[in-house]
Write a structure and sequence with these properties.
By secondary structure, the protein is an all-alpha fold. It has one domain (6-115). The protein is built from 6 helices and no strands. The longest helix has 28 residues, at 49-76.
């Protein structure tokens, strides 16, 4: 089996699929907001308590995800962690976090393979 194929565990493929779903799902709405010239952040935090609650919920999860990504990247000696952190606000947490988890899973798979 080639090295490329060995690095892709079932979990890494699932995380990659979730990243693609997160990218397409969020950016479908983002592009609509841009085309319609909507006040994206104003609507996100200012359209009532339930939407505000969702905004705070997502912001706290984003910070927790970034802390986890940095800690795991350091523990596993992964490179390029800054890319994932920048993707969180620029693209979407729903894309960046599963993409990081995919890279993390691939790194764990590589490390397990070199132990044997």
């Amino acid at each position: 089996m080639s090295r490329l194929r060995r690095d892709w565990s079932t979990a890494s493929v699932v995380y990659l699929v979730l990243a693609v779903v997160g990218l397409v799902g969020t950016w479908t709405f983002n592009i609509t907001a841009i085309v319609e010239e909507r006040d994206f952040l104003g609507e996100w935090f200012g359209s009532g308590p339930s939407v505000g609650s969702l905004g705070v919920d997502l912001a706290v999860v984003a910070v927790a995800a970034i802390v986890l990504m940095v800690a795991e990247a350091r523990r596993l000696r992964m490179r390029g962690i800054v890319i994932y952190i920048v993707l969180v606000p620029l693209v979407a947490l729903a894309f960046a976090f599963p993409l990081f988890l995919c890279a993390r899973e691939r790194e764990l798979t590589r490390q397990r393979a070199t132990e044997h």
